[in-house]
Amino acid sequence: MDKLIEYAPLLGSGVLVTVSVAVLSLVLATALGALGAAAKLSRKSAPRAIAQVYTTIVRGIPDLVLILLIYFGGQRLLNMIGHAAGLDYIEISKFWAGVISIGFIYGAYLTETFRGAYLAVPKGQGEAAKALGLTPLATLWTVLLSQIMRMALPGYGNVWLVLVKSTAVVSVIGLADLVGLADKAGKATREPFLFFVAVILVYLAITWASGLVLRYAEVRVNRGHET
Amino acid sequence: MKFELVFRHWDLFLSGVWVTVHLTALALLIGFMIALPAALSLTRRSRFSPLVRGYVYFFRGTPLLVQTYLIYYGLAQFEFVRESWAWFFLREAWWCALIAFSLNSGAYTAEILRGAIKTTPTGEIDGAKSLGLSERQVTWLILLPSALRRALPQYGNEVVFMLHGTVVASIITIQDILGVGRTVNAKYYIAYEGLLSAAALYMMITFLLVRVLRLVEKRYLRHLDIDGGAAKAGKKIAAAAGMPVMR
């Protein structure tokens, strides 16, 4: 137990890394998801095809494979381009490689979530806004967005919970997140069980707290729709 | 790109595919055997249900990687584990991965089955009871056949997720598809080829699986296709099966 206290500051910094990777990837995934959904709902075939390829590839390949590809492959690619442009050796930070990979992966899942939510909003809402003379942008912003959010929230919360757990694999590329640090601490003290139990408790706490926030958000977006 | 290096080691990749498929199938099988009693106990408030609820919450709330580490590295810390018969299994990465994946899949599957059992139309149960079927007969002849079918689309997602989850095995030294890909990469000091081949293999297996799952659904859910042809229910289920949604 005293070993755990000794390593508490270190593990605390690991928690910070894990949470920041998770939150930043969620931001990126949300942006990619919105873009992807817009592309999938587009009337033009080119954006639809690109979005389809994106979601198909991501959902066919395990997260760790994509992370390794983006980290090692991206590193090589960047340096090939950099070398041709006469630049020095560039190193991708592990942190940003993790954020970009996880954001890229979960953006594909959010694409489906947002697309489904958009389609779940009754058509009459958009038509009524159009009849009132609202521009498409104003329609989206003032009429549809709040309803899309209501429809998307359950799926969005689910993606967040899976995303948080997915951040554990960034430790494989050597990022000093909670799992990576606990692994090192466990090896140094020869008490890996203790440290992995601590990691599990932190993840359970994050899951639990997210559940509370999501339930509150669900009540809030469903005001006026109580059954 | 030097893909001839990959082709030179095609036998390694083949054995990687076998390890991945084997591990996935066994984990799903054992997971299902855990999930069935767990889901039944969750839906009928037995005295085990708090325990089962704890198990499901624990395994669904934490990363598979950490669960695997806990079993593989964590348990080896204790001397009484190392001296017990269990050490025969727990010292092998393969068994540890199988135990972790099975328990993980069991928890997710239990939750899927619980949902399916809970949404069984009460008329089906009432009808069975009114015919004089015993409690056990109702469970095995009516409730489960009906619930298991309705759980199929979601269970299909779980199958795909377990397949993708098995990459964790490569982190604890097992030579599954990703493990082989990384080995080949490291051997020749290349960045893409091994990983890209692994990615392609995973994708092929995933799409094959989705295809098979869709056929199984078509077969076992055709009773939901009431008005024949492209009825709404059937279409909806096919759409859900095509994309491995989040579990």
Compact description:
The complex is a heterodimer of chains A (227) and B (247). With 227 residues, chain A is mainly α. Chain A has helices at residues 2-6, 8-40, 45-60, 63-84, 94-120, 123-131, 136-166, 178-189, 192-221.
Helical residues, percent of chain A: over 70%
Global Rg of chain A: 21 Å
CATH class of chain A: Mainly Alpha
> What is the number of helices of chain B?
13
Number of helices of chain A: 9
CATH architecture of chain B: Orthogonal Bundle
From the 3D coordinates, which CATH architecture of chain A would you assign?
A: Orthogonal Bundle
By oligomeric state, this entry counts as: heterodimer
Please characterize this protein's 3D structure.
The complex is a heterodimer of chains A (227) and B (247). With 227 residues, chain A is an all-alpha fold. Chain A has helices spanning 2-6, 8-40, 45-60, 63-84, 94-120, 123-131, 136-166, 178-189, 192-221. Chain A has one domain (2-221): Orthogonal Bundle (MetI-like fold). In chain A, 81% of the residues lie in helices and 0% in strands. In chain A, helix 2 (8-40) packs across helix 5 (94-120). The radius of gyration of chain A is 21 Å and the shape is flat. The mean pLDDT of chain A is 90. Chain B has a single domain (3-242), classed as MetI-like fold (Orthogonal Bundle). In chain B, 79% of the residues lie in helices and 0% in strands. Chain B is built from 13 helices and no strands.
